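User: I'm putting together a teaching handout on how sequence relates to shape, and I'd like one worked example. Could you take TadE-like domain-containing protein from Croceicoccus mobilis, show the sequence you're using, and then write out its predicted structure as tokens right after it?

Assistant: Happy to. First the sequence, then the structure tokens directly below it.
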Amino acid sequence: MMAMQKFINRLRRDEKGSALIETAFVAPFLVFMSLGGVEVSNMVKRQSELQNAASKAAEIIMAAAPEDDTATSAMLTGVAAKLEADTGLTTHVLGFDQDPDETKKNVAYVMRRYRCGNSKTFKKADTGCTDSTNAREFIVFLMRDDYTPVWKDFGIGETLQYRVEKSIQIA
């Protein structure tokens, strides 16, 4: 019994290897925190990319405001190509009579819409407000994307959905 007591006392005084044991407890948490930091920065980066692409597209339209429908169509096609190049999203130009498919992901839309007076919503051309003296024409950019973080593979969290919408008045 005395030998066992001496052995336990010797282990209590011995500090060799304590740093290794402490590191073994702390290291997994540090790894997960680092992984989380990287994932969050990737999420923020993608959101910034989408916002910047929408801002650049708006700048293009503001720099060369179209004068007629032909010029508007040509400009929308060019802006759609620029959005696709900047974001990697499949980009579609929609006319007045088309609605974007809100169920699709990894897609961008460039649309012509009207806003009637002080309305908070955009309308298609066939809604009747185009004859109004206070109807204004807008170009609307809508981008939908998603990001799946690494930690979803471990059953934590879910896929992040991006939806960036920007509008600019042209008439």
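A couple of points you could highlight for students: The radius of gyration is 28 Å. Helices lie at 2-13, 18-63, 69-87.
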